Amino acid sequence: MNDVFALIAVERRELADVLTGLSDEQWSHATLCSGWRVREVAAHLVMPFAVSVPKLLIKMVANGFDFDKVADKWAKAEQRSNAELAKSLRDNVDNRFKPPGFGPEAPLTDVVVHGQDIRRPLGIAHVINPDSAKVVLDLLMTKKATKGFVKKGLIDGLRFESTDSGWSDGSGPTVSGTAEALILTLSGRTAALAELSGDGAAQMMTRLSG
Prior knowledge:
The protein has 10 helices and 3 strands. By secondary structure, the chain is mainly α. The protein has 2 domains: 2-122; 130-209, Nonspecific Lipid-transfer Protein, Chain A. The longest helix is centred in the N-terminal third of the chain and has 19 residues, at 2-20. The termini are far apart.
C-alpha cells in the first residue's frame, strides 16, 4: 500500500508541475472530460483535500447519491485561483485520502486518468509510469471499478493487452494498445480508440460510442 501512495505522490507532483507552467488560456482549454476545462479538472483533483468524508456524504445525500453531480457542482463553483489550485495539488502530494470502499488504487487512478485528460488536448507528451499503469489497469478490470471508473458492461467478454508494458487481463477477443490508450479507453474516453487494435477493438468502439 505504501508503494501505491508513493506512486500517487509522483503523479501528483508531476501534474502540479504541468499546471504551474500553464498560461491562463491553457487553464481554460477543453479537456477529455466533457464540459470541463483544465480548471475544473484541477478543482476536482483537489476536492478531497478540502471536503471531509462526512461533508461529502452530506453532499451526496443532497444530490441523490449522484457523485458525478456533486463533483460537477464543486468543480464549477471553485473560487480559488489557478495558481492556488496548482499549489493545493503540490501541497497534498502525500495526502492519503481514499474514497469510501476503495484503497489507494482509486486516487492513483484518478490522478493518472485526469492527468491525461489535461495533457492530451494540450499536446503535452507524458509516458505513464509502468508501475502506476499496472495498478490502474488492474483496478479498472475489477467489478468495483464500475462504481465510478468504468461503464458497466464495457469490458465484458474481452481480453486487454498492453503493447508497451506486458500487462494483460480478461478473456475473449483481444483489444491491444499502449497502457495509456487502454487506461483512457477503459475509463470511458474515446480519444485513444483509434490507437487500439485486435479483434475486440471494434466492440470497444461500439460500446463506447453507444
